[in-house]
Design brief:
Layout lengths: L3 H10 L3 E7 L1 H9 L4 H9 L3 E7 L6 H12 L3 E4 L7 H7 L4 E5 L10 E6 L1 H16 L2 H11 L6 E6 L4 H17 L5 E5 L6 H13 L2 E7 L4 H11 L2 E5 L11 E7 L1 H14 L10 E4 L1 E5 L11
Parallel strand pairs: 1-2, 1-3, 3-4, 4-5, 5-11, 6-7, 6-8, 8-9, 9-10
Antiparallel strand pairs: 10-12
């Protein structure tokens, strides 16, 4: 007992380090929709003796000044920045060399000693979604179910509708195709490209054409056109595979699967990696895996053909 006052004083002088979670409302809402709230995030960080500093601001250029002021005044040891801010994150990393940044790999092209990149394994999830889709269109129970509600005749097919085809989209589409080919024939896969992020007329025309060809499930890589496409598929009795369930709203009977990044697991992997390293120096390249899950839509969780 003689050492208790000393221990209390030592604890008071060494408060938990701060972990700044700098995020915009849209991404925070997505995270909340996946069951991660302020309390859950705080609980995760406390396991590593960190105290959560959560700041939610609009994704505007001026947000960079807010971020800089917080780092200068609050001195967080670690900072996570969500991906939708328009400012140059790499400049921030170089301006605060004593701060450790944990960021999605898509945000940064360079490596740094004060940076841990999260590499979300999206291709694996797209492969799984393609594999499951191939199984479903060959499943008699699913076939009867979807034909009854959509009116599609003949063999069922899976479609991919794309707004813009960049390198990352190409990789994800290729992974989906490879997964599909594992469980179904390539002739049962239909791919259409809109070539525009806002062309509703062409999107509607392509969706109509795809249904005529027997497409029952459509992977939507349409971004700003997602809600428009979901509304069309809902009216037609067809199903969609989307990224991020949030925003699907009243389309719970239309969304078959959702491909979702597991941010909580990615953060935990980052912290585990940090505390496992010899931090007296070393490589400037630090990359950890970020899991990506395929989640069944609400209406299909208990369906026999979804197992």
């Amino acid at each position: 007992m003689i050492f208790l006052p000393f221990l209390l004083a030592l604890t008071a002088c060494n408060p938990a380090e701060k972990f700044l979670f700098f995020i915009e409302p849209y991404t925070w809402e997505i995270i909340n929709s996946r069951g991660i709230d302020h309390r859950g995030l705080d609980h995760l960080l406390k396991k590593y003796d960190y105290r959560l500093l959560l700041v939610t601001v609009q994704p505007e250029m001026e947000a960079v000044n807010t971020l800089k002021n917080i780092i200068l005044n609050k001195h967080p040891h670690m900072v996570f920045i969500s991906p939708l801010f328009p400012f140059n994150v790499e400049k921030i990393i170089s301006q605060f060399p004593e701060t450790l940044f944990i960021l999605p790999e898509s945000l940064v092209s360079k490596d740094a000693l004060n940076l841990i990149k999260i590499s979300f394994k999206r291709e694996e999830a797209f492969f799984k979604a393609g594999e499951l889709s191939g199984k479903l269109v060959n499943n008699p129970s699913f076939s009867d179910y979807i034909k009854a509600q959509s009116g599609i005749k003949g063999p069922l097919k899976v479609g991919i509708l794309i707004s813009i085809l960049n390198d990352s989209v190409k990789e994800e589409i290729a992974a989906f195709q490879n997964g599909f080919k594992k469980t179904s024939g390539p002739s049962y896969l239909v791919i259409k490209e809109i070539g525009n992020l806002t062309d509703r007329v062409k999107a509607k025309r392509l969706l109509e054409k795809m249904k005529e060809e027997g497409v029952a499930i459509t992977l939507l890589k349409t971004y700003t056109l997602n809600l428009f496409c979901l509304e069309f598929l809902k009216k037609q009795g067809s199903l969609a595979i989307v990224e991020d369930w949030l925003g699907s709203g009243s389309y719970e009977k239309t969304v078959l699967m959702s491909i979702e990044e597991d941010l909580a697991a990615a953060l935990e992997n980052s912290l585990e990696y940090y505390f496992s390293q010899d931090r007296t120096g070393g490589s400037s390249r630090s990359v950890v895996d970020g899991p990506v899950r395929v989640v069944w839509g609400d209406s299909f969780k208990e369906a026999d053909f979804a197992r």
